[in-house]
C-alpha cells in the first residue's frame, strides 16, 4: 500500500509512523524546512507505544512535479484546514500521481473540510476522519501523542461505501492508536465540533489548558453558551449528533471529555503561540456560516471568532 501524507505536522508524522510500522510505503509532502528535518528520521512518542524510523524508511517531497506517477493508493490530508484550497487544486492538477481508485482521507479539525476536494473528486473518492486524540510536535520530526479519549473514526459525509477504509483503520489500530470505520461520521464530527468550538479558541484566548477552562464559573458560562448555539445550528441545518439536548452533552463534556484531556493545550493555542493562522474558520467560523444561513443566533460564537481573528491580524 502506497500512502501520500499531505502535511508533516504532528498528526501527519504520527500517522506516517503508524503506517510505516504496518509495512506501508509512506511519502510525505512537506515544507522545505520540515523536509530538511525529516532527513534525521521520524518518531512517534507519547501515551501509546513509541515508534522510530530512519529516513530510508520513507520518501519526502517538496514539489508536486517530483512525485512519482501512478503511485498512491491513499492520500492522508493532515495539513491545517487553511491549506485545503491549495491541496485540492494541486491534487487535481497532478492526478497522474494517483492510482486508479485512489482515496483521499481528511484528518482535520472542523466540519465541511471535504467540500474543496469534492469540487474535483467524486464522493466515493473523498472521506473524512474524526480525530479526538491530541498530538503535539516537540520537534519538526517528532510527534507526541498527548491525550486520547476515543478511537479515530473513518467514514464518509456523502454516503460512500466505507468498507474501503477498513484496512486503514486496522493498520492504525495495530500501530497502537485505536481506530474504526463508522457509518454515522457526521454525528461524531459534530460531537467533535462541540468539543473543539467550546475549548480551542477560548483556551487560546486565555492561554490555558482544557482543564483550567472548567475551573471557574465565567469560562464555564461562555462554553455553555457556545454549546447551546451549536446545538441550535445542528438542529436548524438538519444535522444530528449523539445527544438530543445541550444539557446532555454538557454532562459528559464536564464529567469525562475534559477530564480525559485536562492537560492538553489546543491546536489553536499552539498556532497562536507560533504566530500561525488558526483553523477557526473550520470551527466556530463554520457554525457562524450555518447560523447565518438558517437564521440562528450565534452571537457568542461570533465574539470568540472575532477575538481569534483580531489576534491573527498581527501575524
UniProtKB/TrEMBL annotation:
Where does the Ketopantoate reductase N-terminal domain lie? 3-155
Q: Where is the Ketopantoate reductase C-terminal domain?
A: 186-312
Q: Name any Gene Ontology BP term.
A: pantothenate biosynthetic process
A Pfam family assignment? ApbA
Named in its record, the pathway it takes part in is: Cofactor biosynthesis; coenzyme A biosynthesis
Which EC class is the enzyme in?
Answer: oxidoreductase
Give the protein family: Belongs to the ketopantoate reductase family.
Mind listing the UniProt keywords for this protein, alphabetically? Coenzyme A biosynthesis, NADP, Oxidoreductase
A GO molecular-function term, please?
Answer: 2-dehydropantoate 2-reductase activity
Catalysis: reaction(s)? (R)-pantoate + NADP(+) = 2-dehydropantoate + NADPH + H(+); (R)-pantoate + NAD(+) = 2-dehydropantoate + NADH + H(+)
Please explain the role this protein plays, according to its UniProt record.
Catalyzes the NADPH-dependent reduction of ketopantoate into pantoic acid.
Instruction: Please tell me one Gene Ontology term that the record gives under cellular component.
Output: cytoplasm
Instruction: Quote the InterPro entries the UniProt record gives.
Output: 6-PGluconate_DH-like_C_sf (IPR008927), 6PGD_dom2 (IPR013328), ApbA (IPR003710), KPA_reductase (IPR013752), KPR-Related (IPR051402), KPR_N (IPR013332), NAD(P)-bd_dom_sf (IPR036291)
Query: Under which name does UniProt file this protein?
Result: 2-dehydropantoate 2-reductase
EC number, UniProt record:
1.1.1.169
Entry superkingdom: Archaea
Amino acid at each position: 500500500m502506497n500512502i501520500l501524507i499531505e502535511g508533516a505536522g504532528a498528526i501527519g508524522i504520527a500517522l506516517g509512523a503508524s503506517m510505516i510500522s504496518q509495512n506501508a510505503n509512506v511519502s510525505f509532502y512537506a515544507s522545505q524546512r520540515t523536509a530538511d528535518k525529516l532527513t534525521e528520521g521520524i518518531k512517534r512518542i507519547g501515551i501509546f507505544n513509541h515508534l522510530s524510523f530512519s529516513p530510508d524508511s520513507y520518501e519526502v517531497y517538496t514539489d508536486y512535479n517530483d512525485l512519482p506517477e501512478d503511485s498512491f493508493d491513499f492520500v492522508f490530508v493532515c495539513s491545517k484546514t487553511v491549506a485545503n484550497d491549495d491541496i485540492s487544486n494541486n491534487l487535481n492538477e497532478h492526478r497522474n500521481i494517483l492510482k486508479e481508485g485512489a482515496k483521499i482521507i481528511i484528518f482535520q479539525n472542523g466540519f465541511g473540510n471535504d467540500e474543496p476536494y469534492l469540487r474535483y473528486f467524486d464522493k466515493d473518492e473523498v472521506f473524512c476522519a474524526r480525530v479526538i486524540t491530541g498530538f503535539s510536535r516537540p520537534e519538526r520530526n517528532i510527534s507526541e501523542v498527548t491525550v486520547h479519549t476515543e478511537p479515530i473514526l473513518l467514514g464518509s459525509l456523502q454516503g460512500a461505501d466505507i468498507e474501503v477504509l477498513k484496512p486503514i483503520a486496522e493498520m492504525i489500530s495495530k500501530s497502537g492508536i485505536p481506530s474504526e470505520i463508522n457509518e454515522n461520521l457526521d454525528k461524531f464530527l459534530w460531537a467533535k465540533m462541540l468539543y473543539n468550538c467550546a475549548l480551542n479558541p477560548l483556551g487560546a484566548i486565555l492561554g490555558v489548558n482544557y482543564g483550567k477552562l472548567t475551573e471557574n464559573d465565567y469560562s464555564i458560562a461562555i462554553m455553555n453558551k457556545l454549546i447551546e448555539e451549536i446545538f441550535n445550528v445542528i438542529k436548524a441545518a438538519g444535522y444530528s449528533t449523539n445527544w438530543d439536548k445541550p444539557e446532555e452533552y454538557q454532562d459528559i463534556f464536564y464529567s469525562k471529555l475534559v477530564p480525559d484531556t485536562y492537560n492538553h493545550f489546543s491546536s489553536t493555542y499552539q498556532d497562536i503561540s507560533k504566530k500561525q493562522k488558526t483553523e477557526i474558520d473550520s470551527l466556530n467560523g463554520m457554525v457562524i456560516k450555518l447560523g447565518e444561513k438558517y437564521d440562528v443566533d450565534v452571537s457568542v460564537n461570533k465574539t470568540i471568532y472575532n477575538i481569534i481573528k483580531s489576534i491573527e491580524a498581527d501575524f
